Amino acid sequence: MTSSELETPPLDTARRLAEGGDLEGAAAILTELVADPANPDRAQAAVGLAVVLDERGDTDAARAAARTALATGHPEYAAQAACHLAQGFEREGRDDQARAAWQAVLGMGTAAYLPLAHLALARLAGGAAEAEKELRAAMESGERAGDAQAGAHAARQLAEMLLEHGDPGEAAELLLDALEFAPAGELPGLRVLLGIAHLELACAEFAEAVESGADPQTGALAIELLARTLPLRGRTEDAGQVWTYGLEHEDEILAAEVRLRFHRDA
Hints:
Elements: H1 3-7, H2 10-19, H3 23-34, H4 42-56, H5 59-72, H6 77-91, H7 95-108, H8 114-123, H9 128-145, H10 148-164, H11 168-178, H12 187-211, H13 216-229, H14 236-247, H15 252-263
Helix pairs in contact: 2-3, 3-4, 4-5, 4-6, 5-6, 6-7, 7-8, 8-9, 9-10, 10-11, 10-12, 11-12, 12-13, 13-14, 13-15
InterPro entries: TPR-like_helical_dom_sf
Protein name: Tetratricopeptide repeat protein
Organism: Nonomuraea spiralis
């Protein structure tokens, strides 16, 4: 070992070896650091060892190292270790263990890792209500931690869920809020979802106008707008039923207005 290597902190040496592909050399240094309970770098070394051992394919030993880091209670490296465990369990489809590990991340209370944990728990949720709760928590914790990316990602998922469950109004409000803090790369996707929410709201208003007994001209306009908007949401069959409703309406004046609108593009 050269004099410069002797002066280099062991963690840095282990990192350099790992980056250079010498996983065994890195693991040897990290194992020695972890073996000393009094070492101030023990938690960081244990996380590094978990990563190196995982890359070597030694999953059990990697998890043991991660649990060692977790047991230190270090606000940064214990949280990293819990994330490492959780992600590994998710990859293997061991959802219960993954949930427990993500809950451990929440238990650490380290702000930077809370949005990630809430997003994961939403992904692993057993139902829509639980997923919604976790996504809202991800948005809130992302805002507190200054993690706009995680907050925007949570907002997008939650908006998609709200649209799927027929609540475009709340989805639109959520998306408008998200547009205020989302990073530039997330804005196009959020705006598309906001447009979809507005289309759903428009359909609801057009339908309400028809059902509320509008005059023939207004009713025919609402029918046309509803019938032409529904296909944009993939509801072509529903659009056909709306046209039929208007064309066969008992109010002959309204039906005539609808026929004019129906045939004007023919």
